[in-house]
Design goal:
Blueprint: E1 3-4, H1 27-37, E2 46-47, H2 54-57, H3 63-68, H4 72-79, H5 89-117, E3 119-122, H6 143-154, E4 160-164, H7 171-176, E5 183-189, H8 198-201, E6 206-209, H9 216-233, E7 238-242, H10 260-276, E8 281-284, H11 293-306
Parallel strand pairs: 1-2, 1-3, 3-8, 4-5, 4-7, 5-6, 7-8
Helix pairs in contact: 1-11, 5-6, 9-10, 10-11
Protein name: Histone deacetylase 2 isoform X2
Pfam family, one: Hist_deacetyl
Keywords: Chromatin regulator, Hydrolase, Repressor
Length: about 325
């Protein structure tokens, strides 16, 4: 079993707020429905995570940061939905932060499953703009950082490679692991878009910049080279793959021109990289701001199954 699922944040549909925000909050459920329709997944393949507790979150986040989320205004600025600032914080906790904590729980559970079975996919997560002290870019909790700390402490993991292929720079985890030589970060991102975090860029071990307008063939060629270089520079025993689909042609925030087949090829390359080296891998779906993203992700997972890179039947 390698797919974890949770209920996505409902805030974007609350009081018709979805129209005010580019993120498709129905994406995660639709991925699972597409996979079920394809006949490669049923309910027994879905493992429901538990919500990350405050003690879990304190492994990475400070008490002061968590307390700051008791302000609806602060939460609204992090998720970039201004009307949330006017809502009672009890409602924000229930409709926004509780679902996000479930997502964090999904990333942690995926790490455990991957160590046991070689791979796992969380059909969400990948909040790579959140660091221990600062949220932003729709990212409230630092699930990648927390997952890696969990792997170090609970899973007997000693070296982790982050392969971040979301269109945006993963500045959150870069700040969190800026001086940690146990973590190697390969970040392939568009340098001309959010977050433009030049300090965090200093902590990327292998930086691959893909400018606005980059198309599929050039992108995949750069990825092939990056994986070759990464293999020579670092020997991980665990991989966190942040697989944002905001690199898709037409995505309003990513500004790249990667085809749906290019997404499938990208994911296949990363999974093959891990499989050929017997490295456990978790995949997080991260950003993606078009309605088509859910089907593209589902089709990529079907391709991984067809290529025997994942086993959806066990």
């Amino acid at each position: 079993m390698g797919v974890t699922k949770w209920q996505g944040p409902h805030v974007y549909t609350l009081h018709s707020l979805q129209v005010r925000h580019p993120f498709d909050s129905s994406k995660w459920g639709r991925i699972c429905r597409f996979l079920t329709k394809e006949g490669i997944m049923d309910q027994k393949h879905v493992v429901e995570p538990v919500e990350a507790t405050k003690d879990d979150l304190l492994v990475v986040h400070s008490e002061s940061y968590l307390k700051s989320l008791n302000s609806s205004l602060n939460v609204s600025m992090i998720i970039e939905v201004p009307p949330v600032a006017m809502l009672p914080n009890c409602l924000v906790q229930k409709k926004v932060l509780h679902p996000f904590r479930k997502q964090v729980g999904g990333t942690i559970l995926a790490a455990k499953l991957a160590k046991e079975r070689g791979w796992a996919i969380n059909v969400g997560g990948g909040f790579h703009h959140c660091s221990s002290e600062k949220g932003g870019g729709f990212c409230v909790y630092a699930d990648i950082s927390l997952c890696i700390h969990f792997a170090f402490v609970r899973l007997n993991i000693s070296r982790v490679m982050i392969i971040d292929l979301d269109a945006h720079q993963g500045n959150g985890h870069e700040m969190d692991f800026s001086d940690d030589r146990r973590v190697f970060i390969l970040d392939m991102y568009n340098p001309g878009i959010y977050p433009l975090d030049f300090e965090a860029r200093r902590y990327i071990d292998l930086r691959v910049e893909v400018k606005s307008g980059t198309a599929t063939d050039e992108y995949l060629t750069k990825l092939d080279h990056a994986l070759e270089v990464a293999e020579k520079r670092f020997d991980p025993d665990f991989i966190v793959y942040n697989a944002g689909t905001d690199i898709l042609d037409g995505d309003p925030l990513g500004r790249l021109k990667i085809s749906p087949d290019g997404i499938a090829s990208r994911d296949e390359k990363v999974f093959r990289f891990a499989r050929e080296r017997s490295i456990p891998l978790i995949m997080l779906t991260s950003g993606g701001y078009m309605k088509s993203s859910a089907k593209v992700i589902a089709d990529s997972i079907v391709n991984l199954s067809n290529k025997s890179l994942i086993d959806m039947k066990s």
